[in-house]
């Protein structure tokens, strides 16, 4: 049959049998191997990310332990051991003092409560936990409390449990609480009461931000019984149970759920005994690999189609070059140089085809190299994010301790300066976010202005005109500080209490207009300032150049910073940016 077959058909058959089929099989095998390697590498990277995030969560728990320890050894609590029999008025004063003391620790999300035994019903005038969200409560029978046995058995060690929310709770909504038995520091066997810190799932869930870049990822913080303590998904509520294979304490494993393959990454903390579980569909992990593979498949199919077509018309003139080109194609491996040079430019179609194939493989190799470098940079960014999450926690906690210590010593003004400094650093870091709400940027600027007012002994006045509607829009962080600093240093700091500063934010026609004005008496070179912003003067104004570049990086060349003279006296600087509510609106 082969002897009697026309040469054109024989060539087509040979191409199909010895070129097309082997290449497709090689592509299939390589695709599967790359998919397996991709899953393994991503699983390893995710395990490192989960470990680092779990360490951050453990620091949150450690922070609660330090605060509860501080409360337990405080004079307000320890003096309750020796409180003698008192009148109802005295008991009311004790209750009121304790309630005020707890309110210093409670926030909108995290609430501190104290429970005491009151078998003689001496504190019957105090509302119970079914009426109030937090406070000081007295119970005639502590065993009626669902969490009492567990916290009592802990003997003063803090534990984390899921409990019902305090206050009006018709739907039996649950919350996560840090519970601790308060013992006398003079006699460890004497139990004073029980401290309950409810709502801690809120700060815990804030530490899930590094996982936001993984589409469809489910993050779950579990206790030792696999009960959900905190999550970023509505699929699992707080207090629900989740199935974790027995013996899985740390590592990566895959499961099939509803026909979908799920990669699970788990890590168990030696400090708290909690588990951090990340669940992500395998399909979303390898989606980029699949897209590239489909593109390669289409390129190969198109190429084979052209090759067969050309062989049908030019069999005599291209048989030998095609054979050579087939050998090159069969020997090519993605990422490996071909080792051949391009032919001189010619009108010969085979020469052109050969040159195009070489260019295509070079581009494919370059794409593979670029992808490899991108993955390395991505991992470096992940490590950088993890590092920036560790140090700020230590710094914030230290500044918080210094703030309270200074406040307790009576230096209220110094304490407020420390608080403002902490606010500036916290918003400046913003957990790695580049865009923040206008209100957060205004808080940052207000803290900075307060520090400058104190530094220059209130030598100027600051006025704020912020539209309520504009507060919810996003803007690059730390834009206002360099502009305000220039207005103070070059405009009003030496005006002997006559200096004035105006900061205004308004929303108009889909834009945000943010202006900083001063009434400085010294003449300003507006032409030089705008030349700096336009890149015509590169040796000055690094601060405003940085502001200009960051604005245009986020929003384009049509937006930015400008300077002009005020009609009366001084300088006006204003920023124009689009009014956006979500970073996806910029894409």
Automatic annotation (TrEMBL):
Pfam families: HATPase_c (PF02518), His_kinase (PF06580)
Chain ranges of the Histidine kinase/HSP90-like ATPase domain: 479-579
Keyword annotations from UniProtKB, A to Z: Membrane, Transmembrane, Transmembrane helix
Domain Signal transduction histidine kinase internal region: 382-458
Transmembrane intervals: 295-315
Lineage top rank: taxon: Bacteria
Identification of the protein by name: Sensor histidine kinase
Organism: Paenibacillus allorhizoplanae
